[in-house]
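Renewal narrative, Specific Aim 1. Our central claim is that a sequence can be written position by position from structural information alone. The example that follows is taken directly from our test logs and has not been curated for this report. It begins with the structure tokens describing the chain, in the order in which they were read.
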């Protein structure tokens, strides 16, 4: 892995294997610090590592949470001495019935609805909180499209930290309540997510003790998504699936799953393999799939209008890196309509008993489209990322599903209603 000269790493922070911050745009390296933009070019910073040697057995003996990969994440070695949500190690299920409907012979679903606040965001927040504590912050904060709000408020509550959560005022009722219940400082902001994000960036400069998990501690936060790539590989018996389909909002999760696969190969934990990464968007917010289709590197911002609100980021920070990743691996980024998203939710529920939020509907519907258009190989091992729970977006399906009939309490009426 990338090694750094010792004089650039002597920061005094214990952030495990993290060695330095490195600019994704120009490659400039700076010591670990509460920074997120390159001092040379203002490009986004990410973590560079100096990994210890590590074995599969050592990982397998670890806790059943993301902390089994602690030696691969930018968190203090003492991370487990503090209360945290212990997310991760969610189930990877074989999805033969869904596979039969989609025409994919070897299909798995990574079911991240099983996290403490029912989305994959618990992973990134857990890493952000651990790093923020080490970096000296005292308040946990975020701008959110919903799931991050839930995860941030809950993690702060469990850690005994104050939190400040900013959401667009149009958010789903369930996501508002599932945040407010943790007694956070929740503010509904007039505007869409991109407005809320701009506001958070401004506040991050003014409030020096506030760690906005996805803004000023973003380099640390983003690495939490690597745990998904590690888990998928470990749960498949230490191999990398040939195809992975991932929903895209800011694009961070997609790039980090690919990063995790690469690290596992470099560390000798899996055999070298080829894999393709696919990005899934909703047509009503499709800046990255549009750029992919048009064959350009420039992601032009859009004004989101889709039921997939957790993916409704019109100006995605990692958009260009998503394009790099899918092009380098031979994947694609596609999008589907809101009706297809609803169908995707219902198809997954009907075939596998997994109730996903709209983002999951986006993944399933895009997988269907990718097979139909010949972009996804139906014979190759494929994993779909289900990143959030359907209970959070009940409004998306409330006009689609319900009782077949209301009947009097007689067996005759039941038989009649069921056509028996
Ligand atoms: C945030 C979110 C995503 C996408 O995450 P990015 O890393 O911003 O692309 C996907 N699914 C759900 C349910 C989310 O909440
Ligand atoms: Zn730079």
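The sequence written for that structure reads:
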């Amino acid at each position: 892995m990338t090694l750094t000269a010792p004089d650039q790493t002597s920061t005094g922070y214990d952030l495990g294997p993290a060695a330095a911050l490195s600019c994704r745009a120009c490659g400039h390296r700076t010591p670990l610090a509460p920074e997120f933009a390159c001092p040379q070019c203002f490009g986004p910073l990410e973590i560079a590592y100096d990994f210890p040697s590590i074995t599969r057995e050592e990982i397998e003996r670890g806790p059943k949470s993301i902390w089994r990969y602690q030696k691969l994440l930018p968190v203090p070695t003492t991370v487990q001495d503090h209360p945290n949500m212990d997310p991760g190690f969610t189930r990877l299920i074989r999805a033969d019935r869904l596979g039969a409907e989609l025409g994919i012979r070897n299909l798995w679903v990574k079911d991240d609805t099983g996290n403490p606040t029912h989305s994959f965001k618990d992973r990134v927040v857990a890493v952000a909180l651990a790093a923020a504590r080490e970096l000296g912050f005292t308040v946990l904060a975020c701008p959110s499209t919903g799931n991050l709000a839930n995860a941030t408020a809950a993690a702060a509550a469990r850690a005994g930290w104050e939190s400040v959560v900013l959401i667009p005022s149009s958010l789903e009722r369930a996501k508002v309540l599932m945040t407010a219940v943790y007694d956070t400082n929740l503010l509904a902001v007039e505007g869409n997510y991109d407005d809320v994000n701009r506001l958070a960036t401004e506040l991050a400069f003014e409030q020096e003790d506030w760690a906005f998990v996805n803004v000023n501690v973003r380099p640390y936060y983003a690495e939490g998504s690597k745990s998904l790539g590690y888990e998928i590989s470990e749960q498949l018996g230490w191999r990398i699936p040939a195809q992975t389909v991932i929903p895209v909002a800011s694009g961070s999760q997609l790039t980090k799953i690919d990063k995790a696969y690469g690290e596992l190969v470099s560390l000798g934990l899996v055999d070298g393999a080829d894999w393709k990464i696919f990005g899934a968007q909703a047509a009503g917010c499709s800046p990255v799939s549009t750029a992919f289709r048009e064959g350009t590197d420039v992601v032009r911002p859009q004004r989101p209008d889709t039921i997939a609100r957790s993916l409704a980021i019109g100006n995605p920070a990692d958009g260009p890196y998503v394009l790099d990743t899918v092009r380098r691996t031979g994947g694609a980024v596609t999008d589907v309509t809101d009706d297809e998203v609803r169908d995707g939710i219902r198809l997954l529920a009907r075939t596998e008993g997994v109730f996903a939020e709209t983002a999951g509907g986006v993944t399933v519907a895009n997988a269907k489209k990718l097979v139909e258009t010949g972009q996804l190989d139906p014979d190759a091992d494929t994993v779909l990322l289900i990143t959030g729970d359907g209970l959070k977006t009940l409004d998306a399906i409330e006009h689609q599903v319900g009782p077949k009939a209301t009947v009097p309490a007689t067996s005759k009426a039941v038989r009649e209603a069921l056509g028996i």
